Amino acid sequence: MPQGDKSSYTDKQKRKAEHIEEGYEHRGVSHGEAERRAWATVNKEDGGGKKSGSGRGHKESHASSRKGGHKGGASPSHASRSAAAKKGWETRRREAHH
Predict the structure, then answer these.
(1) Residue 13 lies in a domain
(2) Each residue of 8-51: pLDDT tens digit?
(3) Is 18 among the domain residues?
(4) Cα angle vertex 67, ends 5, 74, to 5°?
(5) Does residue 26 lie in a domain region?
(6) Does residue 45 fall inside a structural domain?
C-alpha cells in the first residue's frame, strides 16, 4: 500500500478526518496543513487504519479531540498587559486611601 493511501481506513474514520479538516480550515489553516493535521489526529485516536483479523482492534482515545481549540493560542499583547497592570495599580492606590 503506497504512502498516503486511505483505503485501509473505515468510512467512519474518513468522515472524522473530513470533519476535523473542516474545523481547521474554518480557523484559517491552509487546506494541505488542515488535511495533514486531520489524518494525524485520526491516526493518534484510532491507532491508524483498521486491519482485519480477530483481536487486532484498539480502544479509541479521544484526548486529541478534547484538547482541540484549547492548546496554544495568542497571549495578550504587551500593551493590554501593561494597561491591566496600570488599572490594577490605580485601583489599589485609590482604595488604600479610603
Answers:
(1) yes
(2) 888 889 999 999 999 999 999 999 999 999 999 988 888 777 76
(3) yes
(4) 105
(5) yes
(6) yes
- In the structure grid, which three cell numbers stand for residue 6, read together? 486511505
Q: What is the pLDDT of residues 39-85, one digit of tens each?
A: 999 888 887 777 666 666 667 777 777 776 555 666 778 888 899 99
**Which among 10, 3, 91 is positioned nearest to 57, based on CA atoms?**
10
CA 23-57-32 angle, to 5 degrees, is: 25
Range of the domain at 17: 8-49
pLDDT at 54: 66
**Number of domains composing the chain:** 1
Angle at which helices 31-46 and 11-26 cross, to 10°:
140
Task: Report d(CA 95, CA 98) in Å as an integer.
Answer: 5
